[in-house]
Amino acid sequence: MAPDPADVTRRLDAALVGIATSFRGMSAHPQESNCECHWGSAEELALLKTPDVALDDDLLRRTYWTNDWHHPGPLLRRILPQVTHGLVTGQVEPVDQLGCHFGHSRWQEWPTAQRDAVQEFLDAWWLHVLIDPTAKAPAHEALVLVSEASATLTPWLTTWASVLTDPIAGHQLVVATSEWMYDLLGDAHPWSSWHDEDDWSVALSRWVLRHAPAALRQFGGPSRLHDDVRRLALPFADRWDR
To answer: What is the CA radius of gyration of the chain?
Structure first.
């Protein structure tokens, strides 16, 4: 049974407060550096080393799009309050670079309060994306971030399956299936991942085969997509004979 959207909103609001509290006063590593020609100025780098100063949208975006920082953990801690708030408001897109930034930061090894705050935000935001009509990110994009950030795919799919009685979550599955199908039919993973794309592709295909047919029956979708899901169930060589 899907949770009450009001409860999900309250949980997400509390998770944002938890992030703001846990990461107040954080700054980039004192010796952090990056190429001024390709990233930004020394003055902008100094802002990352100054706690609790808001970054403009462009500087924030360049910071989380860049994956060659020397000390990614402190840097992510510095920008997390803005990044998480931006994911909720739509000012930050759940791009794969951001998920990789989470992964490079090794946040699961941070102190318990910080680690728990990050996990709770990811869990709360994922539910929000799945069932809240005001969510700014589609589920198939949010899945890239949460799975790359946590280095695991299955728990997020399990949560999605648990709320498929909600019409928004069901419709999101139809949209996602359409977005993924070209790659899945070729036994490829739908996004570039730092993790085991082969295993993830198999897991995602099996999950789609288990849950997409019912969603398609309930919420429609082009006839081609119905046919593609049926083809996905066939051995690879047989898919192209139909």
So the answer is: 19
Joined together, the tokens standing for residue 104 give 């490079």
Tell me the C-alpha distance between 127 and 5, whole Å. 9
**pTM of the predicted model as reported, rounded to 2 decimal places:** 0.95
Q: Cα(187)–Cα(155) distance, rounded to whole angstroms? A: 21
Alpha helices in 106-190 (DSSP H): 112-131, 139-150, 154-162, 167-185
User: Rounded distance, CA 149 to CA 176, Å?
Assistant: 19
How much of the chain is helix, strand and coil, in % rounded to 5? 70, 0, 30
Alpha-carbon span 157 to 204, nearest angstrom: 8
Q: Is 185 exposed, middle or buried, given 0-12, 13-18 or 19+ CB atoms closer than 10 A?
A: middle
pLDDT tens by residue, 110-150: 999 999 999 999 999 999 999 999 999 999 999 999 999 99
Among 173, 151, 153, 19, which Cα is nearest to 88's? Answer: 19
Q: Where do we find the tokens 């169930």?
A: 233
Name the percent of the chain lying above pLDDT 90.
Answer: 81
Residue 232 belongs to what H/E stretch?
helix 223-232
Q: Is the dihedral of CA 215, 221, 225, 230 positive or negative?
A: positive
**Is 74:28 a contact under the CB 8 Å cutoff?**
yes
pLDDT of res. 82: 97
Q: Which of 202, 101, 123 is nearest to 92 (CA)?
A: 101
- Would you state the pLDDT for residue 242? 55
